[in-house]
């Protein structure tokens, strides 16, 4: 089977999506441990399962695409770990949400971030699939 994580848009309300995904990462780890499934563990990230290990593809609309790009962006420091987990997305949205989703400059900043996220997502998945054996 092929599994797809689909994330909805909604601006700063993506923080709610990220919070739900944070609980999902923790619950997936607890459940998989209880059931005897083995998922990769990542340095500095005990007790969670990465979304890339649960889903074959992640996609989203608007803020959902930013979150999906974060989960698909690989850590290039010599590991197979994704660069961002749900807790990282929560931190980014909490600290930078006012800047990203500003009403004064709204469209321009949001579209810049969206374009960058789409670019990161595209290249992240490309490098992920090239490196996958």
UniProtKB/TrEMBL annotation:
One GO molecular-function entry: phospholipase activity
Signal sequence interval, chain numbering: none
InterPro entries xrefs: Acyl_Trfase/lysoPLipase (IPR016035), PNPLA_dom (IPR002641)
Keywords: Lipid metabolism, Membrane, Transmembrane, Transmembrane helix
GO biological process, any: lipid metabolic process
Location of the motif GXSXG: 60-64
Domain PNPLA: 5-133
Residue intervals passing through the bilayer: 109-130
Residue interval(s) of motif GXGXXG: 9-14
PANTHER family recorded: XYLOSE ISOMERASE
Protein family (similarity comment): Belongs to the patatin family.
Protein name per UniProt: PNPLA domain-containing protein
Native source organism of the sequence: Strombidium inclinatum
């Amino acid at each position: 089977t092929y599994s797809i994580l689909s994330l909805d848009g909604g601006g700063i309300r993506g923080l709610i999506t990220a919070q739900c995904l944070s609980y999902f990462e923790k619950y997936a780890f607890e459940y998989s441990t209880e059931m005897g499934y083995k998922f990769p563990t990542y340095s500095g990230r005990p007790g969670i399962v990465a979304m890339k290990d649960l889903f074959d593809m992640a996609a989203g609309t608007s803020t959902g695409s930013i979150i999906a790009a974060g989960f698909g962006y690989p850590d290039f420091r010599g590991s197979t770990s994704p660069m961002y987990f749900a807790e990282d997305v929560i931190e980014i949205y909490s600290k930078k949400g006012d800047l990203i989703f500003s009403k004064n400059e709204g469209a321009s900043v949001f579209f810049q971030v969206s374009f960058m996220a789409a670019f990161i997502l595209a290249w992240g998945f490309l490098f992920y699939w090239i490196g996958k054996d």
